[in-house]
Design brief:
It contains 6 helices and 9 strands. By secondary structure, it is an alpha/beta fold. It has a single domain, classed as Rossmann fold (3-Layer(aba) Sandwich), CATH 3.40.50. Helix 3 crosses helix 6. It is globular and about 55 Å long. The chain starts with 20 loop residues before the first strand and ends with a helix. Bound molecules: 1,4-anhydro-D-erythro-pent-1-enitol (R2B). 1,4-anhydro-D-erythro-pent-1-enitol binds next to strand 5.
Length: about 250
């Protein structure tokens, strides 16, 4: 038995030509959607703790679609185990809230680098260590988005640990933000940060430390300049766009 504890599969499940590229989604339903829509010869490798994984082929190339779970601690476990299995490129396909007025619900953001405000990353690299995407993966994602006529933005993402306080939300159970978090959306807007999410910064630091390639494309599902809420009516279409940009990037890699 060579199963890794959290992935719940091992090298012997991956065959003679094991996948070197993994799509990584926070939501297990998105991991299943990617595999079900785009993979040939899909195998479900694991349904364990909501961190489900699938294997298949796209254009004859073996590929994984795995779930990171929400937030950097969970992502760090799944990515560590994927790398142990020989994965060399990880593309996060996520959801996100925009910070800039011209980044609209339904658009996609391709992260060139993260403002990484994530505790898990401190276990892997120093606070000031850069959190940047692989430039070739980012260009592949941008080429794919352009080719598909998507509204896309390439730039800096704020990767934080919490959905509420860390993204300056006061509409949840805690209406009182610490002084450091008051006016966060305005401050990040002035710093030209495009969007909030909760995984990419740690993924990028792991990539530089471990020596693999990483990229991130996120569907914009909230406009934080306007509201704290997710626009549920547009979520599926936005996620479909991010997925098709990620899949379309493969041919540029
Ligand atoms: C986006 O969506 C999740 C929070 O709702 C989290 O995983 C993220 O980065």
């Amino acid at each position: 038995m060579d199963k890794l504890y959290h992935l719940n599969f091992g090298k012997s499940d991956l065959g003679d030509n094991p996948p070197k590229i993994a799509f990584l989604s926070g939501d297990p339903a998105r991991a299943a959607q990617i595999a079900g829509t785009f993979f040939d010869k899909v195998t479900c490798l694991s349904e364990y703790r909501g961190l489900d994984s699938y294997m298949g082929k796209i254009g004859g190339v073996p590929i994984l679609s795995t779930t990171s779970g929400m937030g950097a601690p969970s992502l760090s476990i799944m990515v560590n185990e994927l790398i142990q299995l020989g994965v060399e490129t990880v593309i996060r396909v996520g959801t996100s809230g925009s910070i800039q007025p011209d980044v609209k619900v339904g658009d996609v953001v391709i992260t060139s680098g993260s403002l990484c405000v994530q505790g898990a990353a401190h276990d892997i690299a120093p606070r000031d260590y850069p959190a940047h995407a692989d430039p070739f993966v980012s260009v592949a994602l941008a080429n794919s988005a352009k080719e598909q006529g998507k509204n896309y933005h390439l730039g800096i993402t704020a990767s934080v640990d919490t959905f509420y306080e860390g993204q300056g939300r006061v509409s949840g159970a805690n209406p009182n933000l610490m002084r450091s978090h008051q006016g966060l959306v305005d401050e990040y807007q002035q710093l030209n940060v495009l969007n909030f999410e909760m995984e990419a910064g740690t993924l990028f630091k792991m990539a530089s430390v471990y020596g693999f390639k990483a990229g991130c494309v996120c569907a914009i599902i909230a406009e934080r300049v306007e509201s704290e809420n997710v626009v549920m009516e547009m979520k599926n279409a936005a996620v479909d766009s991010a997925i098709s940009v990620a899949v379309g990037a493969l041919k540029y890699l």
